[in-house]
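User: My collaborator sent over this chain with a note saying "see what the structure looks like." That's all I know about it. Can you take a look?
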Amino acid sequence: MDMKINNVMRTYQVQRPDKPASSERVSRAEERTDMVTLSTKARDFSAINKVLADTPDIRADKVQNLKAQIDAGTYNVSGMDVANKLFAQLG
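Assistant: Without extra context I'll predict from the sequence alone. Here is the result:
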């Protein structure tokens, strides 16, 4: 059994085509150039995505205003406003 495997390997090595020289492979690779063209929509999406990434998630001015109202004891939310917002999100 071992003899057959060795014979197959020798045959493969004899029939295998020669590999191109490494300098030849490099020159072939240098000849090829890949090119990407983005559509207008893709460019717009990329620009919007960058603006969104640069925009903070927390509106500091609004948070400060709410903190000041809570500290002063003037922050009031009506139950009706809460209910309306909940129904708006569900519907």
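A starting point for your reply to your collaborator: The CA atoms of residues 81 and 87 lie 10 Å apart.
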